Amino acid sequence: MQKFFHDAVEFVPILLQGVWLTIVVTVGSLLLSTVLGLVWALMRVSGIRILVWLSAALINVIRGIPIIVLLFYIYFVMPDFGIALSALQAAIIGLGIAYSAYQAENFRAGIEAIDRGQIEAAQTIGMGWWLTMRRVVLPQAVRIILPPYGNIMIMMLKDSSQASTITVAELALQGKLIASSTFKNTSVFTLVALMYLTMSIPLILLVRHFENKANRK
Amino acid sequence: MIELNDVHKSFGKVEVLKGITASVAKSEVVCIIGPSGSGKSTILRCINGLESYDRGEISVEGARVDSNDRSIVSIRTQVSMVFQRFNLFPHRTALENVIEGPLYVKKEPREQAIARGRALLAQVGLADKAEVHPPKLSGGQQQRVAIARALAMQPKAILFDEPTSALDPELVGEVLSVMRKLADDGMTMVVVTHEMGFARDVADRVLFIDGGVIVEQGAAKSVLNQPQHPRTQDFLRRVLHPL
Q: What keywords are annotated for this sequence in UniProt (chain A) (predicted)?
């Protein structure tokens, strides 16, 4: 145990650099996936056939490709088409696109759960499609969307470790590098696991807070 | 003001409106009665474009109602609707429900919309419920908020789709009395209802609909007191004397 604390003092500062990149990748791809997911979901419920079809196709293509392949594609293949991204940019875009499919399905389920009468009431006071979404449907859909959204956040935090495959030195890769140079596997990976756990707990609490707030209304 | 000319409407293979021709004049109160499934609500829903119709023509003050055209938005601000199940926005207070349209559709200044919204809530007897969310209100109160919300658009007519059918019997009166006051003030109203007493006392005209056609129409008292058509007679007998 004493040895572990000794190792911890030595490795934590290095691992924290990885934590910072993990947070950057998670937050960046969370924002991107939320925006893209909302766009796909709104296309899906727009009632305009070409948009519905396009969004369904996109979601299925994205869902059908492993995240790691998507990352490789963006980082290693896109330069052939003249789009060279840094590893960090590629990781955020790749994870953002990959998770946009799940976000979209979650948003769509929330939107479709809203009573048809709500939409008709909005229409009869002269609201158009976008105003109805913004003022009536989405505010009510949020309380349905939030719990699964929280789970997606936690999954994204953990899946940000896949960025290591395209050389982003986030927490998992940082840990692996230290472990392979010091052979202190137990100490290093225990620290890495604890750090992921520490980052997950606030997210879990945040989701619970949102749920309570939504239920109180 | 509202004209329907040979309106047909089918849901799949079922034709629910088989050539409805009717008109509603300004300040007139028209009640539509008839058995369930006869197409009464569908008529209202076609008038403000919640449903499209297949054939014939509906117009509001000369403007053709087309649910797929942008013009439908302007028609809907002129012809409000009150629903059987209220359809208030549960995430907004009574006052916010009322001012939603004026603020975001008509772009009224906030202070003006709030002042008018409070006045409308007072008019339907709910001045003290302005800050309450709909789930905390009784059915009768919710329906009165819904009427205030419809009035807030300053419509030329209001369509009522069975406004008291979802209410407990003791709450029906408070909603009907608000509607009666509106009628007295000269509001143009089309009311789908099973409240024969209201139809007799308040309506100028009654349309009896069965099987997607207007079977009988005329002055409220004459249709309800001396129905001519056997189907009207049969329907009224069953509604007024269920035992």
A: Amino-acid transport, Cell membrane, Membrane, Transmembrane, Transmembrane helix, Transport
For chain A, domains (ranges, CATH) are 1-215 (1.10.3720.10)
- Put simply, the chain B residues between 112 and 141 with a CB less than 8 A from any chain A CB are 133
Q: Is residue B143 part of a domain?
A: no
The CATH number of whichever domain residue B7 belongs to comes to 3.40.50.300
Interface confidence (ipTM) of the complex: 0.89
Within 8 A by CB and 6+ apart from B158, the residues are B79, B80, B81, B82, B147, B150, B151, B182, B187, B188, B189, B190
| DSSP string over B146-170 | HHHHHHHT--SEEEEESTTTTS-HH
- CA angle at A141 for the pair B97 and A91, rounded to the nearest 5°: 140
Average pLDDT, chain B: 91
Of A49, A119, A124, A130, which to mutate for an interface test with B (greatest number of B Cβ within 10 Å)? A124
Residue among A118, A125, A217 minimizing CB distance to B105: A125
Mean pLDDT score of chain A: 91
* Segment B148-190, tens digit of pLDDT: 999 999 999 999 999 998 888 888 989 999 999 999 999 999 9
pTM: 0.84
**Residues A157, A26: contact at Cβ < 8 Å?**
yes
Q: Is the pLDDT of residue A14 over 90?
A: no
Residue B29, domain extent: 2-88+157-240
